[in-house]
């Protein structure tokens, strides 16, 4: 995944966005638009189509959105 390639400090970026602890902002479900927005905050620009594909791949419970736990799996893969 491209986020890993751009992760300079190895923390996968999902605990720190803009140098602050942002884990609480990640709790919840990600739709394709909110996933695109969060990835943008992490410095990874992507298309809505790519977000749809990511959700399809990592939506483990099949509800059509990424939960926080599913997002963590995606970010560590």
Automatic annotation (TrEMBL):
Record's keyword terms, sorted: Calcium, Metal-binding, Repeat
GO function terms (MF aspect): calcium ion binding; enzyme regulator activity
Residue stretches in coiled coil: none
Matching Pfam families: EF-hand_8
Domain of life: Eukaryota
Domain EF-hand: start-end pairs: 46-77
CDD domains in the record: EFh (cd00051)
Signal peptide: none
GO cellular component: cytoplasm
InterPro entries for the chain: EF-hand-dom_pair, EF_Hand_1_Ca_BS, EF_hand_dom, EF_hand_pair_protein_CML-like
UniProt protein name: Calcium-binding protein CML31
Organism of this sequence: Capsicum annuum (Capsicum pepper)
């Amino acid at each position: 995944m491209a986020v890993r390639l751009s992760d300079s400090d190895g923390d996968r970026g999902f605990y720190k966005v803009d140098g602050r602890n942002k884990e609480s902002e990640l709790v919840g479900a990600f739709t394709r638009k909110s996933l695109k927005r969060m990835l943008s905050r992490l410095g990874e620009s992507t298309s809505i189509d790519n977000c749809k594909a990511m959700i399809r791949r990592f939506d483990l419970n099949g509800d059509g959105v990424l939960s926080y736990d599913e997002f963590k799996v995606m970010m560590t893969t």
